[in-house]
Amino acid sequence: QADAAVLVIATPTGEFEAGIAKNGQTREHALLAYTLGVKQMIVALNKMDDKSVNWGQARYDEIVKEVSSFVKKIGYNPEKIPFVPISGWHGDNMLEKSSNLPWYKGPTLLEALDAVQEPKRPTEKPLRIPLQDVYKIGGIGTVPVGRVETGVLKPGMNVTFSPAGLTTEVKSVEMHHVALPEAVPGDNVGFNVKNLSVKDIRRGMVAGDAKNDPPQETEDFNAQVI
To answer: What SUPFAM superfamilies does the record tag this protein with (predicted)?
Structure first.
């Protein structure tokens, strides 16, 4: 459900190298973020106060060069990624510029977060909700759960579940136990449907607007394989 990610990298000698290694967490987290559709990233270079780093620009430049090369291979444009040196322990360059980093001319971590652009939501496209799960909730009924990828989901509309070919009315839409007048792309929601049991629909099916290009079976499709 995130629009942006902050990739926190430890700068001390040995710690950065472990994170960027073949099975390191830095690599894993960057790849996960891109795979999950997070298109904007901020890289925070933490522990600049460590004795092995000592606020040094040389270590900063070394890490920026290596991480830029790696995230470019994943699919990010490193020129659009702010690389922000910080000290989480002392608070340097997180909210305000730090006198310990006079050579750094970029934004603070807070400024980098404020500069994140809200992406345009594909609300004009036909509704698509891949189901993550289906629950039976006492006193409510059958509640499919999933993330709205495109379109808009509203209470009262008729949805079709494919490939089952079942159509029914949406009674309510909720996110984090709060009723919504509508759900838009990026929202992880549960929606109560009429006259369907948990045996009728299941994880992997796709819900769409019955009156506007509902999802259909296809002979082929394009996929990103990780």
So the answer is: P-loop containing nucleoside triphosphate hydrolases, Translation proteins
